[in-house]
Write a structure and sequence with these properties.
Its EC number is 1.18.1.2. With about 450 residues, the protein is of the alpha/beta class. The protein is about 35% helix and about 20% strand. The longest helix is centred in the last third of the chain and has 16 residues. It binds NADP nicotinamide-adenine-dinucleotide phosphate.
């Protein structure tokens, strides 16, 4: 009897897990799935993206983990395509490969001063506060140590996440799974004023109303905005709800002893000032025409800033052997295109397929579309002769983190959390994660 179709899924974030679920959860084509991740831990942006104070959303990991327990799915963590395995290796070992490695890069502002100390990308800050092993702790912590005036560029949900986490008081963060050093640095950060800059008007902001309203309920900060553009009527319900929430913010006044979070629209940064580090942002007032197009007015002012965070979107990048164009891998409904033609046996799902938009659940539909294409193609996909992927990795001296190893990390994170009365605490250090995974610290 022919063996099951062997599929590798590259990236164990939501898109990868939903793809594995769709593959393992059907009966038409017998399939085994190797779910690879470059981190020793699964869940991608559910672990290292969703803000730690959004505990209910982070609990999505409890649902996603059921897929890891499926007998047809094997989690293979701490394996990096391009370092431990090439795309050609994957093709030699598996009948089909689904790339779901996301868009982990940060878009750049492209303005003078962007590389000064004190200027960060939101991806740097998010990686740090979620305990990502690759976070640049020294850079982020040095910037936060003197962050009294913070300017956030962008008015999407990531900007709101960063603003909220910086504006929360220690008691509000106490029960999160953030590493202790993160809680300590946030508690000591002198944040007084946070300004978010939207380059277009309030009606064009990309944040969602629930996340916006949350800013109005912080115990240690007041949400403020200017009335500019708030009298607009919109027939789009989400926009009308945002405008209504912002009108409430426009009624708020600063309160002594509380930080402020001010949303400013029609404002774009044109230069970051400072010699050795950021001291301010030159902001230009903008105008938006009826087609939502933006233009500068040349009217500028300087906002003081000790920390500038660009929350202007994520960017997909090449994997060695798989190029992106404009941030995504060219594809047709999930089938990878190389030189304009479908490349048999190669698929994409998630942000690397469609770009960095949508909520976690968007990836479910997206992954199902890709898996439907793969299953439809399966009769024509040649079965490879290659060895087992994990055997090959071990033969190359790698120690992949399998499900039981991940469970040991999971236990260690619960135990670490319990030492301070928390449900769990994220272990951020890669060597510590590996040591727990492979038994050295159990
Ligand atoms: P986003 O929603 O695309 O927001 C990016 C923001 O940056 C926009 O305000 C954009 O303005 C602005 N921007 C882009 N380039 C700029 C530039 N050069 N100068 C000034 N401003 C610039 O992206 P995101 O916030 O990174 O979020 C990514 C995805 O994850 C979104 O789909 C988001 O909803 C989702 N997410 C959801 C949650 C949640 O559900 N709680 C949390 C986090 C993220 P323009 O509109 O003018 O381009």
């Amino acid at each position: 009897m022919e063996r099951p179709l062997r599929v590798a899924v590259v990236g164990a974030g939501p898109a990868g897990i939903y793809a594995a679920e769709a593959l393992a959860g059907q009966d038409d084509v017998p399939v085994t799935v190797d779910l690879l991740d470059r981190l020793p831990t699964p869940f991608g942006l559910v672990r290292h993206g969703i803000a730690p104070d959004h505990t209910k959303m982070r609990a999505l990991a409890d649902t996603l983990r059921h897929t890891l327990d499926h007998p047809g799915v094997r989690f293979v963590g701490d394996v990096e395509v391009g370092r431990d395995l090439s795309v050609a290796d994957l093709r030699a070992h598996c009948d089909a490969v689904v790339f779901t490695h996301g868009a982990s890069g940060a878009r750049r502002l492209g303005i003078e001063g962007e590389d000064l100390p004190g200027s960060l990308a939101a991806t740097d800050v998010v990686a740090w506060y979620t305990g990502h092993p690759d976070a640049d702790r020294a850079r982020v912590e040095a910037a936060l140590a003197r962050a009294r005036d913070v300017v956030l560029v962008g008015v999407g949900n990531v900007a709101l996440d960063v603003a909220r986490v910086l504006a929360r008081c220690p008691a509000e963060l106490e029960q999160t799974d953030m590493p202790q050093h993160v809680l300590d640095v946030l508690a000591a950060a002198p944040v007084e004023r946070i300004t978010l800059l939207g380059r277009r008007g309030p009606a064009q902001a990309t944040f969602t109303t629930q996340e916006l309203r949350e800013l109005g309920h912080l115990s240690a900060a007041v949400a403020l905005t200017d009335p500019d553009g708030l009298d607009e009527e919109s027939e789009v319900r989400a926009v009308a709800r945002n405008l209504a929430a912002l009108r409430e913010f426009a009624e708020h006044v600063p309160e002594a002893g509380k930080a402020s979070v001010r949303l400013r629209f029609f404002a774009r940064p044109v230069r970051l000032c400072g010699d050795e580090r950021v001291t301010g942002v030159v902001v230009e007032r903008t105008a938006v025409d009826p087609a939502d197009r933006l233009s500068g007015t040349r009217e500028t002012e300087v906002l003081p800033a000790d920390l500038v965070v660009a929350a202007i979107g994520y960017q997909g990048h090449d994997l060695p052997g798989l190029a992106v164009e404009g941030g995504t891998v060219p594809n047709e409904g999930g089938r990878v295109l190389r030189d304009g033609a479908v490349s048999p046996g190669e698929y994409v799902a998630g942000w690397i397929k469609r770009g960095p938009t949508g909520v976690v659940g968007t990836n479910k539909h997206d992954a199902r579309e890709t898996v439907a294409a793969l299953l439809a193609d399966s009769p024509t996909l040649p079965r490879v002769e290659g060895a087992d992927l994990v055997d090959t990795l071990r033969a190359r001296g790698r120690r992949p983190v399998l499900l039981e190893n991940w469970r040991a990390i999971d236990d260690a994170e619960h135990a670490l959390g319990a030492t301070r009365g928390r449900a769990r605490t994220t272990i951020h250090d890669r060597d510590a994660l590996r040591a727990h995974a492979h038994g050295a610290q159990r």
